[in-house]
Amino acid sequence: MRRKLPVAVLGATGMVGARFISLLSSHPWFELKAVAASERSRGQRLREAVRWLPPEGLPEEVLELEVRSPKPRELEEAEIVFSALPSEVAGSIEEEFAGEGFAVFSNASSHRMDEDVPILNPEVNADHASMVEVQRKRRKWEGFIVTNPNCTAAVLTLSLKPIQEEFGIRRVIVSTMQALSGAGYPGVSSLDILDNVIPYIRGEEEKVERETLKMMGAPFKPASFKISASCHRVPTLDGHLEAVFVELERQAKPSEVAEAMASFEGEPQRLKLPTAPKPPIVVRGEEDRPQPRLDRMEGRGMAVVVGRVREDRSLGGVKYLVLGHNTIRGAAGCSVLNAELFAALKLL
Amino acid sequence: MRRKLPVAVLGATGMVGARFISLLSSHPWFELKAVAASERSRGQRLREAVRWLPPEGLPEEVLELEVRSPKPRELEEAEIVFSALPSEVAGSIEEEFAGEGFAVFSNASSHRMDEDVPILNPEVNADHASMVEVQRKRRKWEGFIVTNPNCTAAVLTLSLKPIQEEFGIRRVIVSTMQALSGAGYPGVSSLDILDNVIPYIRGEEEKVERETLKMMGAPFKPASFKISASCHRVPTLDGHLEAVFVELERQAKPSEVAEAMASFEGEPQRLKLPTAPKPPIVVRGEEDRPQPRLDRMEGRGMAVVVGRVREDRSLGGVKYLVLGHNTIRGAAGCSVLNAELFAALKLL
Amino acid sequence: MRRKLPVAVLGATGMVGARFISLLSSHPWFELKAVAASERSRGQRLREAVRWLPPEGLPEEVLELEVRSPKPRELEEAEIVFSALPSEVAGSIEEEFAGEGFAVFSNASSHRMDEDVPILNPEVNADHASMVEVQRKRRKWEGFIVTNPNCTAAVLTLSLKPIQEEFGIRRVIVSTMQALSGAGYPGVSSLDILDNVIPYIRGEEEKVERETLKMMGAPFKPASFKISASCHRVPTLDGHLEAVFVELERQAKPSEVAEAMASFEGEPQRLKLPTAPKPPIVVRGEEDRPQPRLDRMEGRGMAVVVGRVREDRSLGGVKYLVLGHNTIRGAAGCSVLNAELFAALKLL
Amino acid sequence: MRRKLPVAVLGATGMVGARFISLLSSHPWFELKAVAASERSRGQRLREAVRWLPPEGLPEEVLELEVRSPKPRELEEAEIVFSALPSEVAGSIEEEFAGEGFAVFSNASSHRMDEDVPILNPEVNADHASMVEVQRKRRKWEGFIVTNPNCTAAVLTLSLKPIQEEFGIRRVIVSTMQALSGAGYPGVSSLDILDNVIPYIRGEEEKVERETLKMMGAPFKPASFKISASCHRVPTLDGHLEAVFVELERQAKPSEVAEAMASFEGEPQRLKLPTAPKPPIVVRGEEDRPQPRLDRMEGRGMAVVVGRVREDRSLGGVKYLVLGHNTIRGAAGCSVLNAELFAALKLL
């Protein structure tokens, strides 16, 4: 790639915003030009305005950036915007950017279920990238919006993809143990979660069910398998752990399913995208893995880790555990990978 | 009840042993006469030997008891023994006591799957009490062995019983978030579980699956529905939380299922047994309950708390959360209730 | 006491407010008539408005109370108000109530360092109650304001009182490990404190130092010993643990100091006030106590627990650990005890 | 350095052993030749025998090493042994190795207080290295024993050194919040520490007090300032946090003390030893640092982080917080640095 593509981050002061900045500040294809956030932070240095920093910190020069408003004319030097805006405000702001010709890669849920907006998890449904053509025509936009999935669905679908391809899926049941960072910062009160589990995350189960079917079907045609999710918050910092039960279309041994996962490669691996984990699915043989603290940074947070693939006698299929980093693979990292896919496919 | 029945506790120095002692030390029908444990503790005061105390402490006079060996002739003044022995040694010791005429109520897993030993969770299968007649004949014992179920199965089956009775069950999938006390004391290292989940508990899934079917069938005839469990350890002190997905034989609305649970009563409630919780199943309407820290002591740890009863579109049935105290309802409390049932039914 | 005194709680929807309500809703001398909070909650049932509930819950009839504004004319049926208002607003509101003739017992820090307002921890400085006479004259108030100390200072001063009385104090150094509830609800983000300690609590060290001297001196004449505090937040739910190093005026063995603490009684014990713990200081002999989870509810949260009283070779004195429940002894419980003292002394 | 020095690790299967291996397996001066542990592990691959792995894992080839017995003739290819043996057995084994000519760098406490054995924290007391000459003569050993300090003392003394040099120290009081890994693996039961603090660590306070004086004095002549420690275990994984109160010999402003710490360099920095952190003391200006989770890996776990340097009005000096990684700077890393010092000074 000759010149780096200029990019900006919307919603830069929150947790997913900080993850975007960290991934973009030393990116081989993209150059971070500007950061934007709500009016409250406008005019401050990012250093003052940022509410959370990743463990590795952020580069000094980025911390010196002035926070701008999330308006197209304030971010004219960028061609791509990554959106970590809260879903209450993301909808119209992202449309405005797309209308002005920006490529918008968004973590917000606002547009995910719009019929012509792809939810893109590129190992799973790179072919959905083509949906933006329809989107542009219908909406008469120069730019476009591509979303990454809900964090839980991102991890789940990546683990399901090789199963769907090789054995077919009839039914999926997923029960989650989700990390605190999924609620953003400050998010969950320590008084609520210490020595406790909160067995409810607003809107999460519906998102997991609907987004999974949309991603795992063809463009504009959701998959038709059955799916049910039960979502729960546990006291871990990062890494969503999911217990998955799958009814297969075609009988298979657990070892065959594990092998299909371990050898799986998606479009990002074939295109050697910079942020693509190799392999995207790490299958571990120990009886007590994956564990959030030990496995969440696998593939720099972009891989998912699968373990305990075993027979499910209830559904006639398999059950397993899968873990992925919810704010990297399940949020910022996925949108960065989406942008890389678009760049590699010359869709920008 | 005229005189109190004399009882002893085997395995008195561990966590479940301490729970037994706490429940028995002010019991209206039973009188704690002696405590026993492994040779290592023999001759010590319980005060010195006990490794864990319940939050409420134990009575001074009990702490002064001398720890004896778990041998029938050392515990002759007892008629009933409650066993919290580790399963590695419980098998033959319990048989010896039963052979010598003691009524043995055990938390150990050693004999649970013996064909003629009931796993008794008395709201669920009080009718299995009759199995001890067969057991005595076959084994030519004066006494008998009755076990309580695995902690996870105890909580699960209590919640399933009214569903089975009113709607029938075809299939059950359960994904657990189990407390640290389930591993005993000292049990799980803090270095393993802080900021983490361990997605494996040795032998647990098999126990949950087999014991549930044995309890929910007729005596000597396990239930035939399908069941699959995935068991996980989370950083909570007490209280196993379980996400349950149920395929029903007969269609029902979630509200009907919730109502069946809320109005359920079992034999312990009908017989007004002293340790019986009223109601045995507490159904909460909040969207974020049950929670381990808030709900585990419901019914003094003997009730289970159900929440989020909702439609399951994958299985055609319902999904819900259930929580119960693993060392009370799921261990010592259940065996005490079993002994009360035997006393009330004049089976002692 | 003939009739119960009518009382109201200001700031009823937060954590300390809920503790006040819990203590007052079955009080032998006081009758809870009304609850008030900020405009945001006005007109709601307490059930809807309350942000946090104590583990024991609150009575149904109290949860049905309508939340009023914290204005004297809206709470006319009360004679005493207990204030859990945030310190940003407590100052003028409490003055208004005192001016209108209410006895105000406040947990807010706003007036604590006013010269004529007592900080009252009644085992420590019951004689400071007389300061309200000066206060009333100076301010021409019908009513008055009495504050309870900062939570850390409340625990510390109770443990220091018998040492001061029997041996004299030259110097105190205290290093704290404070519970999450000290920051209110929602307070500390779980993302900040899991697997972590935050070695800073805004304003806390100054409060501990100044309030301790004010309480441990004569009315209007602070004590003159030297004191230094270092305050830190740890991941515990309730119970402030403090490592205390004391230089004595008169040499004493650790066992003498421990004995002075264990046999200590204050005015609340002599007057047999309903909320007074007996004894106020529990001295434990184990080498690893006090522990927050095990000891915080000692004396229904009103006692402090001391352990590890040992020689301090650096200062020439003793060092020890002390623990107290920060929202009971260190907040609501202390103000309720203060009101009981005023009632018993006929100062209301 | 021409050839790498051949080294072995004793006590290789525990937590500090694993830290030793991690630091040594890619070391520029040392080459790990062998690992040894107790008889129980003998003959196993390290992979099977190791009880704990660092987050970064260990190299495959090291995991394939066969565990040997901790006997000189089984480790003949090594010249240096690093000892992470438990103190119950370390004493005589380390003497045997020293007698056979090995340079022993030990984390065990067994020999620390032997008059002729240096406790070496090389930024603090590099000059104590010379004590081994006396040791060899007295004991007629070819080799020698050098110990690293107790983890808490290692962190404390590094922070105190520049204060001692520039302002003089009269008195030190330290109150600690120590991480779980300080107790080794499995160490502290999760049931003891969740939602809790344990205000006692066996032998720790005595070690901190004695070792600090030994290190901060001249060889064979302990320092004479007064010191008192209170040691407590908190629920953090790694990183000991210490609240330190210091009475100075010569008055100084907190800013001067902070500057002395920030600009401090020791012998390891001057000699540019491979494991030496630069700077050894990181002084942070934020009001809420250092924090264990955020700061423990500073300088790859070899630096200490200081914050909140402020006036102490009680002692007439300063108080501050210091944090260091207890199993790196406070254990394995310190002994590796000690060996580097000996290599650089041609003392091997």
What does this structure look like?
The structure is a homotetramer of 348-residue chains. The first copy, chain A, has 13 helices and 12 strands. The first copy, chain A, has 348 residues and is of the alpha/beta class. In chain A, strands 3-2-1-4-5-6 form a 6-stranded parallel β-sheet, with helices on both faces. In chain A, strands 8-7-9-12-11-10 form a 6-stranded mixed β-sheet. In chain A, helix 1 crosses helix 13. The radius of gyration of chain A is 19 Å and the shape is globular. The mean pLDDT of chain A is 97.
Layout of SSEs?
The structure is a homotetramer of 348-residue chains.
Chain A: E1 5-10, H1 15-24, E2 30-36, H2 46-49, H3 60-63, E3 67-68, E4 80-83, H4 87-99, E5 103-106, H5 122-125, H6 131-139, E6 144-147, H7 151-167, E7 169-177, H8 190-193, H9 204-216, E8 226-230, E9 240-248, H10 254-262, H11 267-270, E10 281-283, H12 292-295, E11 304-312, E12 317-324, H13 328-344
Parallel strand pairs in A: 1-2, 1-4, 2-3, 4-5, 5-6, 7-8, 10-11
Antiparallel strand pairs in A: 7-9, 9-12, 11-12
List keywords for this structure.
homotetramer, 348 residues, alpha/beta, Rossmann fold, Dihydrodipicolinate Reductase, domain 2, 2 domains, six-stranded parallel sheet
Distance between the termini of chain A: 13 Å
Structural class of chain A: alpha/beta
Order of secondary-structure elements of chain A: EHEHHEEHEHHEHEHHEEHHEHEEH
Radius of gyration of chain A: 19 Å
Oligomer: homotetramer
Describe the global form of chain A: globular
Outline the biggest β-sheet of chain A.
6 strands, parallel
The chain pair forming the largest interface, with residue counts per chain, is: A-B, 41 and 41 residues
Strand residues, percent of chain A: 15-25%
Which CATH architecture of the largest domain in chain A would you pick? 2-Layer Sandwich
Please tell me the total number of domains of chain A.
2
Number of helices of chain A: 13
Strand order of the largest sheet of chain A: 3-2-1-4-5-6
CATH class of the largest domain in chain A: Alpha Beta
